[in-house]
Amino acid sequence: PSLFLKASEQPVDDLEREAVQSYFHLLGQHSYPAEGGRVLSCYSSSVAMVILARALATEIDSVALIHPTFDNIPDLLRGADLRLVPLPEKELHEGDLPRKVIESVGCVFVTTPNNPTGVVLAEERLRSLAEQCARSGTILALDTSFRGFDTRAHYDHYRVLEDSGCRWVVIEDTGKLWPTLDLKVGWLARSENVGLPLAKVYSDVLLGVSPLILALVKRFAEDAAAGGLADLHRFVGEGRTTLRSALAGIPGIAFPDQDTRASVERIDLGTRSAMEVWSAVTEHQVYTLPCRKFHWADPDAGNHSLRVALARSSFTVDAAAAALRTVLAGT
Question: pTM of whole model > 0.85?
Answer without folding.
Answer: yes
